[in-house]
Amino acid sequence: MAETAVELPAMTYRIMGLPRSSFAPYFSLDGQELARIGGLRLVADADRGFPCRISLRDADRGESVLLLNFVSHPVDNPYRTTHAIFVRELAQECEPYVDCLPPVFDGRHLSLRGFAQDGMMVDALLVGPGKVEDGIDRLFANRDVACIHVHNAAYGCFAARIERHGADQ
User: Fold this and answer.
1) In terms of C-beta distances under 8 Å and separation of at least 24 residues, what long-range contacts does 140-147 make, across chains too?
2) pLDDT at position 3, please?
3) How far apart are CA 157 and CA 32, in angstroms?
4) What percent of the chain has pLDDT over 70?
């Protein structure tokens, strides 16, 4: 009797921007108040280079952005991570990106860091433009990887979190 192959559903992933509500208290602060918490208000001087973590797209030239410190991996182990991020003051939360990449990844070299459920890093790699999805597939092929944190390779700032989504969770 011949065995029939069973096609398993493909693993999918989901990328979400950070919630606007996490940053709303900062939008009304003036420059001195922002400075007291280590933040800055800037005006984007180019259409690229100010990647918003709420909308997952770059700010447009002339847009007001906040540069803030953000704890992207709030764990009690050596991999706790905090770094500067940009948020657009007029940003609206984006819909989750399911099985597709947000515009903020376009053309960037990225660091993909695979974390286990306990917050320990179990794998990592650098990817260039056009190779992000291959990197996601490679890291999620490791069943110990519960989520992936994406960082801009050059500046090191947190870009987004990628979660397993769908049947293969």
Assistant:
1) 140/11, 140/13, 140/114, 140/164, 140/168, 142/114, 144/114, 144/116, 145/114, 145/115, 145/116, 146/115, 146/116, 146/117, 147/114, 147/115
2) 52
3) 24
4) 91
154-164 residues labelled b (16+ CB within 10 A) or e (exposed): eeebbbbbbeb
For residue 8, the 8-state DSSP code is P
Residue 38 CA to residue 35 CA, distance in Å, equals 5
84 and 68 in contact (C-beta within 8 Å)?
yes
pTM of the model: 0.89
Measure the CA–CA gap between 41 and 27, rounded to whole angstroms.
9
Note the Cα 150 to chain centre separation in Å: 5
Residue pointed to by tokens 């493909």: 10
Q: Which residues are registered as beta bridge partners of 64? A: 43
